[in-house]
Structure formats: C-alpha cells, structure tokens
Design brief:
CATH architecture of the largest domain: Beta Barrel
CATH topology of the largest domain: Thrombin, subunit H
Strand content: 25-35%
Distance between the termini: 31 Å
Number of helices: 7
Oligomer: single chain
Number of domains: 2
Strand order of the largest sheet: 8-9-10-13-12-11
Amino acid sequence: MGAMTKKSDPALDVQPVDSPELPINAEVRHPEPRRKSTFTARLVPLLVAALVGGLAGHYAGTSSTGGFAINQLNGNPSAAILPNGKSIPALVKSVLPSIVSIDVKANGSEDQGTGMIITKDGYVVTNNHVIAAAAGGAGTITVTASGSTKSMPATLIGTNPIDDVALIKINNVSNEPTVTFGNSNALQVGDAVVAIGNALGLAAGTPTVTAGIVSALGRTVTAGTANSSETLNNLIQTDAAINPGNSGGPLLDSAGAVIGMDTAVAGNLPDGTSAQNIGFAIPVATIQAQLKQLKAGESVVNHGAYLGVEIMSNNSSIQQQYGFSISTGAVIMSVVSGGGAALAGLKQGDIITKVDRTSIQSAQDLQSVISSHHAGDQVTVTYNRAGATRTAKVALGRRP
C-alpha cells in the first residue's frame, strides 16, 4: 500500500459560504451576523467587474443592427451535458422546486443561505450556521421557494452544531416537492456534480447553478474566529463554484440525487494567495444520521470526546485505490500526535470497524459514537491493519 496523503491543510482559510464579511479563519458554524448594507457594499465591485467583462464581449463581435450583413442561427443554444448523457438544464429543472432560499433576521442583522425540502409537509435541512442567529427564538426565519417571490415563515426544529446541520419547517404547507438523497459513501474522485444555491443572496427564489467534479474525499477542515474554531471531518471537496449564500444547498450527482450539502469554501493562504475552486460539502450520509434526533426537536450536544484521528469513509473505490482487504469502516487518514489514538498505537491506513460493541461502517458512524462519549472515557477500538484484525484500548481526550 502506498503512502497516504493527509487530508487537512491547516494553512487554508476556510470560510462558511454564507458569510462574505467573515475575517480570515472564519468560523464555519457560527459566523458573525451579516448586515444587509455591508453585503450590498461588497457586492458592487463584483457586479462592476462582471459588467466590464460583458461589455468587452459585446463589442468584440459585429453588430446585428445598422444595416450590417451578418450570419445568424436561430436554433436554441446547446445544453451542457453530464457524463451520463443527462443535460444540466433538465437536471436543474427537476430539482429546483425542492430548493428554497433562507433568510434569517435577528438583532438588526440578516443572514442568507439555502435549504432543501426533504418532506412533503415542509421539513427543510440546511447548515446550522445559516440559522444560528435565530437559535433560542432570537430571530425570524423565512424561506422563498425557487421561482417564487413570496416568502414563507419557518420554524427552527433542531440543531447539530457538531456536524453543522439544522432542521427547520415551513409553516402550514403540504404536498411540497422534495429532494432525493443519493449514496455519498459510493462517491469517487472525478464524479460529476452540480451545486445549487442562493449565491451572494442576489435574489431570493432564483438560485445559482454551477457544475464540476468531486475533487477529493475525506477532507478535514478547521475554521474559526480569534475566539473559537470548529472542525468538520470527512467532507467532499469539489471544484464546482460555491459562494456566500450557497450554504445549505445541494451538491447533486449526475442523476440529480443529493450527495452533499454545500458548506464552506477555501479563502486565502497566509501569504495572501487566493485559493481557487476549492469548496466543501457535508456528505448526505452525515445528514441522514442526524435527522431522527433533529426531527424530535433535539439539539445534538458534543460532549467533547476526541479520538485524535482524521478519517474518511471506506468504500469499494477506496479499497481498490489503497489495496485494502475490506470495503467498509472508517479509514484513518492521519493520526494527531499525542492524541489517544496515537498513544494506543493506531496508525495512518488503519481501518476502524468497531468501537466497543458498535459496528463502524463509515466515518459518520465513528463520529456519532465518539461524540456520544465524554473526555476521559476509555473505549475498545477494533481495526483492520494490512488485512489483520486488531484491538486497542483508547483513552479519549478533549476536543481541541
């Protein structure tokens, strides 16, 4: 088995994609509330730049008026085609009715993001950091369906700051169109994806669509302010453009199924170099694992337990790539020096298959089990190393 590459890059400034005003090392889950006037001021130079480019393109060709003889085709433009033969316009048309723009007002500020309708009676999943300002009844949440200009009130149901997932419900609706969940554990690097979201909050009900590929899997990113930081594991990296306002929107596979939720985008490196086309999405498997608790109105609490590893879900593609003997479990991509896992002898490339008596099929399973423990707890970790099954007693530390 070849050497494995560590999936996190602490040098990256990763920002939540609905908070353009956040400083370097912006907090992924709890951004500072964004005021509308500030957002508008920052948007102007972006629109000016786009306008200049548009004018240059217009005058580069021959005018179609004023008596000039020109060649002209009257047919429709060709649709962008995904590798499976489905056109992007057709995919977008089928999914858009189940996507909403989210607006949160609290304490004189306003945050905007995106959500996905998952049930006919109006439950919507989004990022926790999109609705954080309204937690505890501090503000109001409204949603606007794609293709509509009418905002509808919504209620916060449950939050999970650990995985940056939240559930809201549109008030007094029925027979709503819903998204379809795909299998994020079956993703491969290079798979085609489409991102949809309320980019830049330009106009509620008119989402932006971008396309790209899965650039990497199993990424761990840490982002924060001067006062706090959060770490998200096992993220999907994509080069499909993700911008402020996309938070909570879907990352779709070529069949139109949701395989991730747009969450963060890389900003600048410490030397000022801008990161290009590096966005991150939470796998839909992580979201599904939280829905039961969220619908029950529970707020998931992180007890602070810390195993000290960076992980990704194993699958048949990962198995083939690295020559593993099994195709399930949580693959250790790196081990944090001095952490419980390192002290217990776990290494990069080990595949965790069980914690105590709980079977581990994916990275989400491991995250859920560890978050239910407290710092100082001791657990028995069963893992596979080079085809052999081993166990280790691990003392859990406290999450940094």
